[in-house]
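Q&A log
Question type: sequence-to-structure
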Amino acid sequence: MPKITKAVVAVAGTGTRFLPATKSMPKEMLPIVDKPIIHLVAEELVEAGITDIILVTNSDKKSLEDHFDHNRLLEHSLEKTGKIKYRDEISKIAEMCNYIFIRQKGPYGNGTPVLSAANIVGNDPFIYVWGDDLVKSKVSFTKQMINDYTKSGHLMIGVQEVPLEEVNKYGIVELKHGTMEIIDIIEKPPIHEAPSRLADFGRMILNKEIVDILKETPLGKSDELWIVDAIRTYVKRGGVFLAKQVEDGEWLTTGDPLNYLKAVIKYALEREDIAKELRQFIESVNLCNI
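Response status: OK
Response body:
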């Protein structure tokens, strides 16, 4: 089984739902306490053994690119003032793995970043990630997926159960009875037509066959190029594509302000340095239990 060492990360979105905050800052750079969203995504990938992270960007993502580069002036300043811990921490970011930045080209849609990175991933299987999706788990979810792929050889996508009233916001998977094998994926189905409550999210293992199918896939819903349309074609042609649930953890979307704030609080409540006082604050303003 070919070893998975490459990840394609889609970060070309405009972050419309976070305006005006994202007018001059990429949505993926919004902080989860003291680390940007995209930083946590990269850490998950590196923990899984990914050595090359391909970030598919657009023209307003320079600060994202700078985040994964050395800042020699800052590192020198921290060293000079004796703040070695902070110097080492920010220096490590650039050394975690090899970062490749490419500009997105093609039609709007979550399938386009895959095509933009196709020449770099070549014939190898790879991880495809949405840059605003976090998976908070004891063991890197990407690592969980790669372990399963190594055993089964089957492509897969991350899924998590959502409330029935929210199924029309996501791609919902239909599974072969008694298995995690996908029969179909319905993008944002009406509530009464949803085949399950399992929503797909931005963690997938794909390969060149999916890329080739995507190249011939017409634009779908809302005139967008959808990765799930390529997956559906792959399944219809006899390919086995699995749904993978998170073990000992959960998917946290940060795609809108409410879910972003929920993610920040959940991460903060696991920080030994601030969790106690944060809980006291939550209780003092009579917020609901989290």
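Response note: The first strand starts at residue 6 and ends at 10.
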